[in-house]
Fold this protein.
Amino acid sequence: MAKKESTLTSMVLTLFLVSLIASTILGFVYEFTKEPIAAAKLKKKNDAINVVVPNFTNNPGNESFKVMSADNLDSLTFYPAYNDSTEVGMAVETFSKKGFGGKISLMVGFLPDGTISEIAVLDHKETPGLGEKMQRNKSNFHVQFKGKNPAIFKLSVKKDGGDVDAITASTISSRAYCDAVKRAYDTFESIKK
């Protein structure tokens, strides 16, 4: 059998068919995984709310609302937590784009007086073994924020004149973490006024 000669038309047609098949397969995979990924993100968010605010009886996700951040960069999502009719805290989904690996997302819990209850990392792309130490299961970095009121606790690393001990060899990640917490606090305070 003689070898078929390649022409521009046959190469373009072959490339088109390969691209069409690949994009169709990717589309099916996306549709198949879209809902499980969304469910996993929602579970992670709900788990973070449970960690960062005291015990509550309502469903904060059903009562959530968005507020433009105090620095007007983007809106933050607030999740009010009530025990019966008494407000016990507010979880705030916040972010910073100043991380070493880009954007980091946190869930910060505030008590009604503005004191930080707890903080949980939702998403980040920081360096494994260094910046990832901001996560609760990787180090105790988050502990230094618990019970502190940002009205008197400076939310910046000590190197910048603040009160926060930076993660060793991860000052940029620590600054981003502080930036996200400060954005949440400033916006939380702006809605109380």
